[in-house]
Q: What sequence folds into this?
């Protein structure tokens, strides 16, 4: 079976410009996985965090509102102008601690080597091509300081009977038109991370009403 087609950067930008704040409606299946991710990211000593695909800024606000030290700085990146504006509004109260940038969708991050001690991306890699996933992980490795942590969450193939059935249905819809599912498809993150010079610290599958999420934390 041929690989699922992924959206171009331009298609993704157009889709999420229109989708806007409705992205937060996905919280029902994302919340537990993101909580598990945070539990293993060792955020207490983190001083600098970069998030690829910051969306509406919901996760950024949670990080800055008590999960990170009060002097930690945050950089959020997103391809969508709509999402960038929503994220800026949501994080405005944190002042100069926060910077939100719009990107062209390319994996490259405009930051020096070793500039951050945490790199996070939730429900973003599962809409990228395999080549872009590898490029993102290479860039994460570059911008993280030695000992820095990578934190990822994405859709994946579940282990329960219900989840396996939903995965097959999701992939069938994706094959018909990836825009119908926002470009996202179940992904296996561990295989990509294994080839990138990372030390995996935590890896699990979290299921919410049959929707499976892969949670992975690794050290540079």
A:
């Amino acid at each position: 079976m041929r690989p699922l087609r992924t959206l171009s950067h331009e298609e993704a930008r157009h889709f999420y410009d229109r989708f806007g704040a409705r992205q937060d409606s996905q919280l029902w299946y994302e919340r537990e996985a993101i909580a598990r991710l945070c539990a293993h990211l060792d955020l207490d000593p983190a001083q600098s965090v970069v998030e690829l695909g910051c969306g509406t800024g919901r996760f950024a606000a949670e990080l800055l509102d008590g999960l990170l030290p009060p002097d930690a700085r945050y950089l959020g990146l997103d391809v969508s102008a709509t999402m960038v504006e929503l994220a800026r509004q949501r994080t405005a109260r944190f002042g100069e601690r926060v910077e939100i940038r719009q990107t062209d969708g390319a994996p490259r991050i405009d930051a020096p080597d070793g500039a951050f001690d945490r790199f996070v991306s939730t429900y973003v890699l599962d809409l990228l091509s395999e080549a872009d996933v590898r490029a993102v992980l290479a860039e994460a490795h570059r911008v993280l300081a030695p000992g820095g942590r990578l934190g990822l969450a994405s859709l994946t193939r579940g282990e329960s009977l219900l989840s396996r059935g939903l995965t097959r249905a999701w992939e069938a819809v994706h094959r018909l038109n990836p825009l119908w599912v926002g470009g996202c498809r179940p992904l296996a993150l561990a295989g990509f991370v294994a080839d990138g010079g990372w030390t995996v610290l935590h890896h699990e599958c979290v299921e919410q009403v049959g929707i499976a999420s892969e949670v992975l934390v690794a050290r540079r």
